Amino acid sequence: MAIHYRDDGDHVVVITIDRPEARNSADMEHFKLLREAWERFAADDEARVAIVTGVGDAFFTGADLKRYVPEITRLHREIAEQGLTEIDGYRLDDGTRAVLRDWPLHKPVIAAVNGFCTAGGMEMVGGCDIRLACPEAAFSVMEPKRGLFAGGGTTVRLPRQIPWAFAMEMLLCADLVPAERALQMGLLNAVVPRSDLLDAAREYAARIVANAPLAVQATKESALLGLYADGDLARALRSGVRALRDAAAAGADPEAIAAILDGLAGELRSPLEKEARISRRVFGTEDAREGPRAFAEKRPPVWRSR
To answer: Which one of 82, 96, 188, 298 is CB 3.0 to 4.6 Å from 101, fit for a cystine?
Structure first.
C-alpha cells in the first residue's frame, strides 16, 4: 500500500504518499487510497489535524499519465454501461477528492512538502491550510506544458489564495518555482531544512490541537464558506431551480411554489450571515463554557468536542 495513514499521537495523523518509483504520482488505485485516507481522517473523532507528505525527492506529482488515463477512461465506460456509481470501490470522483477539491473537510490539514510538487500536487496543496516546504522543494502548475488543464481546483483556488499576478505567473508560465520563491509569493508559511520538515509540521499541529476542536473546525468552515461563497450560492440556486421545475411540471399551486421560493431564500446567505450562524453554534457548546472557566481558574482547558 503506497498511501500510509499513521496515528502520530496527540490527535495528529500523518498521511504519506509512498510511490517513489513513479515520483509519487497516482494511478487509479492510489487516487482511491488517497481519497479513502482523507475520508478516514474526516470520520476519525480522535484525529484533529492531518499532516500530508511524500517520500524521496517528490511530494506528489499528480496523475501517472501512462496508467491513469486509460484506467479512468475504462472506469467511465464501465460505470456508464452498468449504471453504477462505483465499481470495486473505485469512483469517478476519486481524483478530485484525493486532492481535496470541493468537499467539506473542516479539520485542518498541513502540507509538509519534501520535494517536487507538480500538477495534482499543486491541486492538493491548494486544499491544505498550512504549507511548509524544504529548500529542495519546487512547485509547478505544469499542465499547460503538456497541453493539459489543471482541473483539480488550482485555476480557481490559486488566484484566491495568493496575489493575482503571482497566481497567473504560476498558471500561465508553468515553470518550476523553487521553495524560496513560493514563500515570497505567499504560497507557503515557511521553508525549513528537510531534516526538520516533519518536526516543524508537528509544531504547527500542536499549536492547533491546543485549541478547542469544534471552534477550530468551525473557523475553517466559515473561512471556506467566505472564500468560495460563489460555489455555495450556485449549489443553492441550482437546487431551487430544479425544485421549481419539478413543481411546475407537477402542476403545483401558487402556495407550493411560494414555499419553494421561501426555502430558497432561507438558503441564500452572505458569508457574514453564515459566520453569525456558525458563531451561535460554537457559543452553544460545552467547550465554549470550558474555555473561559479554565482561564478564570488558571488551568489548561479540557476540550470534550461537544
So the answer is: 96
Catalytic sites, residue numbers: 123, 143
What is the rounded CA–CA span in Å between residue 115 and residue 273?
Answer: 41
- Residues 6 or more apart whose CB falls under 8 angstroms from that of 6 comprise 13, 14, 15, 16
pLDDT of residue 1: 66
Mean pLDDT of 190-203: 98
Comparing CA positions, the residue from 51, 97, 48, 105 lying closest to residue 224 is 105
Same domain? For 35 and 70 the reply is yes
pLDDT at 289 over 90: yes
Same domain, 46 and 172: yes
Range of the domain at 269: 213-296
Residue 73 lies in a domain: yes
Task: Please state the rounded mean pLDDT for residues 278-289.
Answer: 93
C-alpha–C-alpha distance, residues 156 and 149, integer Å: 12
What is the predicted pLDDT for the residue at 248?
Answer: 86
pTM, to two decimals: 0.91
Residue 38's SS3 state is: helix
Question: Can you tell me the distance from the alpha carbon of 272 to that of 38, in angstroms, rounded to the nearest whole number?
Answer: 28
Contacting residues for 45 by C-beta, under 8 A, at least 6 apart: 305
